[in-house]
Known about the structure:
Helices cover about 25% and strands about 15% of the residues.
Amino acid sequence: MVYQIYPRSFADADGDGVGDLKGIRRHLDHLTWLGVDAVWLSPFFRSPMADFGYDVADYCDVDPLFGTLVDFDSLLAEAHDRGLRVLIDWVPNHTSDQHPWFQESRSSRFSAKRDWYVWRDRPNNWKAAFDETQSAWTWDETTGQYYLHLFLPEQPDLNWANPEVVEAMHGVLRFWLDRGVDGFRVDVVHGLGKDPNFPDAPPQTADRAWSGQNDHESTHAILRDLRRLVDAYPGDRVLVGEVYLLSTRQVAAYYGHGDELHLAFNFPPLFAPWESAAWRENVDQVVKELDPRGAWPTWVLSNHDNSRHRTRYGSEARARAAAVLLLTLRGTPFVYAGEELGLEEAWVPPERQVDPGGRDGCRAPIPWDASSGHGWAGEDPWLPWPPEPDARNAAAQREDEDSVLQLYWRLLAARLESVALRLGSWTALPSPPGVLAYEREAEHDRRTVLVNYADDTVEVYVAGSWTIRVASDGHGEGRGYEGILGPSQALVLMPTVPG
Ligand code: GLC
C-alpha cells in the first residue's frame, strides 16, 4: 500500500501553520503501525506556490517552508530504517514561471533556452485546466509570442521535444535517485509528448481542458528512456505515472510492453458512483486492458485533487465498505492521508479559500489528537480542520476498536497474511444486484470479498464454509459467515479451518 502525504497538510513541526518535513518525520510511527509499505510525498520543492508546489522553481532543493535538504535526507534515512519506501513527486510537464529556465526562455526570442518551452505566434483552441474559459496560451508582451501552459499561466509547459530539456530533467531524476529515493510519482505524465503541429482540440471536447486530453505517441519514447534510467539504479525503483485520461484503455498504453511506467493511476473508478454495476464495469475494464499486457493495476479513492470519498459516497458505512474494496482488489492501493481516519471534506469559508482549482476541502490539515491544536505546533493551520477533529483524529481512533483507522489496520494486516490478497488472481462470483463479490486466489490461499453497495440487508450465498476475517463495520469478525450481508457492509472471508 502506498500512502500519499500532502506535506502542507500532514504535520507541522515549526509552528508556522504549514506542514513540513520534520512534521512528517515525527509521525512515521503512525505509518509503520498502520502497515504502510511506501509513502509518496507531494511536492516539497522550491516553489512560489501558485499551485501549492506543483509549480516548481528548483527541482533539486527543498522549499524553506518545508525545511532543508538535510531534513529530507534525515526523513529518508529514518523511513528506510523503518522499512518504508519513499516516492517523491516529479513534475516534468511544466515548471514555475519563476524557474530560472523560464526566466531565461522568456528574456528574448534568441535566448539559449527559448526552445525549452513552447512558444508560438498563434494560439490553438486548447483550454487551460482549473478555468476552462481560459486559453492554454498566454501572450508574452516582452517577446511578442504566446507560451503554452496546460495549467496556470504560472506553470509554463516544458518542451520535451528538445533534447536539452530531456537531459536536464534526467539530471533531476539522477539527483534524487542518487540521494536514495525509491521512485517517483510522475505528474501529468501523458502531457509530456505533444503533437508538433499543435492541432486544435476537436469541437466535441474543445470546451474541456487539454490537460485531460493530450495523448500523443511521442510520450512513449520519452517514457522508455525514463524507465531505462530508473531501472539502471540498484534496488526496485519505481515510476508511478499520473495518466489523467479517463479511459482505462488509454491508461494501459502507458505501461508500454513492460518498458514504460511500472504503475499508472487509473482514475475512472475514482469518478465512478457508489454502485455495484459501475464498479463491476470498471474492474472488468482493468482486467481486460491491463491483464493482457501483464500490467499491474492501481486503485485510488481519494487524493489531493478530488473531494474525499467519505464525502462523495455520502456515509461512513459506505466509505468503510469502499476501504475493503480498495485494499482487496487486485493491484496496488493508494491511500490518501486522512482517509484512514474517515475524514470528510473540510468546509472552507470563501475568505479562506486559496486553491485556484477549488480543492481546499480535501487538503485540510490532519488532526493528530484531541487537543485544541490537534497536534499542530503553534499557529492555526493554513486551512480549517475537517469536521469533528475532536473524535476524528489519529490518537483517539487508535484507542477505539470500532474506528475507521482500526478498520484500515485490520485490512492491512489481512493483506499481509494473505498472498491471495496481495498477489492473487481476481475472479467475479455470482451475486445479487447491488453486490460485488469476488475471489482472490494464489498458491492455494483464497479469500472471498463481498461488498454491499445497497443500504439494505441482502442474502449472498457463497459456496463452501467461510469465516469473517474483516467486516467493514467490525461485526462478526472471527465468526462463520451465515450468508447475510448488512446494509453498506463489506466482508473479507477466509476459508474456515475444519476442527
Ligand atoms: C496534477 C496534480 C495537481 C496539479 C496538476 C498540475 O494533476 O495532481 O495537483 O495541480 O497536476 O501540476
